[in-house]
Amino acid sequence: MKNNYDFHALLDDVEFEALAIDIVRVRENLEPNVFRRYPKGRDGGIDGYRYSDNTIIQAKCYKNDFNILKGSLKKEVLKLRNLKPSRYILVTSVGLNKEQQREIMNLFKGYIHSDEDIIGRIELNEYLADPKFSIIQLKYNNLWTPSTVVFEHILENIILRGPNNFNQFHLNEMKNNVEYYIKTKAYHESLDIMDSHNCLLVYGEPGIGKTMLGFNIAFHYLMQNEELDLFFTDTIEDVYKFYRSDKKQLFVVDDFLGVNYVNNQIQNGESKIYRLLKSIISGNNHKIVLISRKNILFEGIKLLPELKAILLNMS
């Protein structure tokens, strides 16, 4: 998938600095946090620094004008006389031709040792089109949200992996929700619960945004793993139907405790959901979001004491 991102238009300076460091880190197969970052403000010529080999990364996010970039870089060269880095890597939102790259190489002679350490707009887009860098592209959703190209590409892959579990209605609803969703404190607390227990219970009165929260929690994990199998359903039976122990899967079950479901569980003298949740919570491959109306949930946990016990253990 070819990219042509205008990084200056889509990212602020702090986001671009983080992107620059991530690109270099992944390119060179380095561990996370190997480069030290500095707070926003005057950086003294350093946006990322690796102590082990005295490497500096400098990010320059400007509109596509080489003269503006060059004027800024002349000031950076003066700072390097005191910093004396062994290696200097420039990452910029400005597109550079070969002649402009040579000018920069000459300007930073003794600090930039290879044209591979001059990464402009063209190179950034080429890196982000490489599957090796896909996790970075997904991390910076301001890059792709305006066009939703990445979003639609991922959802198309989901349809191909599980044609029975996803319909166009859910795709359109999820797309609309994630594009305009405001990530509140409740959203981040929900992620913490999911990370700790692999299970999240969302309940409340009709119309408060329960399903929207479920969509966005699911989307968060999809961004972390494009190969994740994602399922939306309104029955626990569908979870059993599509559950695969050897696959990374996430289930969003809307109205998981409908009245008919609770009554069937009591009549059968068993609680399938208890066994299912116990397996998911104790495992590593699965996550589940359970959505319910408040009154139905309270009725259900009265009739299904095992369910009450497992939900209390999550709190």
**Overall 3D geometry?**
elongated
Strand order of the largest sheet: 1-2-3-4-5
Cα separation of the termini: 43 Å
Unreliable segments of 5+ consecutive residues = 159-167
* Rg calculated over all Cα atoms: 25 Å
Q: Outline the biggest β-sheet.
A: 5 strands, mixed
Helix-strand string: HHEEEHEHEHHHHHHEHEHEHHEHH
Structural class: alpha/beta
Q: What is the percent of helical residues?
A: 40-55%
Compute the number of strand runs.
9
Mean pLDDT, nearest integer?
A: 82
**What is the percentage of strand-forming residues?**
5-15%
Number of helices: 16
Can you put this structure into words, describing what you see?
The chain has helices at 7-10, 13-27, 66-83, 98-107, 121-129, 134-139, 141-144, 149-161, 168-180, 185-197, 210-224, 236-242, 259-268, 272-282, 294-303, 305-314, and strands at residues 36-37, 48-50, 55-60, 87-92, 118-119, 199-204, 229-233, 249-253, 286-293. It has a 5-stranded mixed sheet with strand order 1-2-3-4-5. Strands 6-9-8-7 form a 4-stranded parallel sheet, sandwiched between helices. Helix 15 (294-303) packs across helix 16 (305-314). Residues 159-167 have low confidence and may be disordered. It is elongated. It contains 16 helices and 9 strands. The protein has 315 residues and is of the alpha/beta class.
Can you give me a brief rundown of this structure?
With 315 residues, the chain is an alpha/beta fold. 53% of the residues lie in helices and 14% in strands. The chain has 16 helices and nine strands.
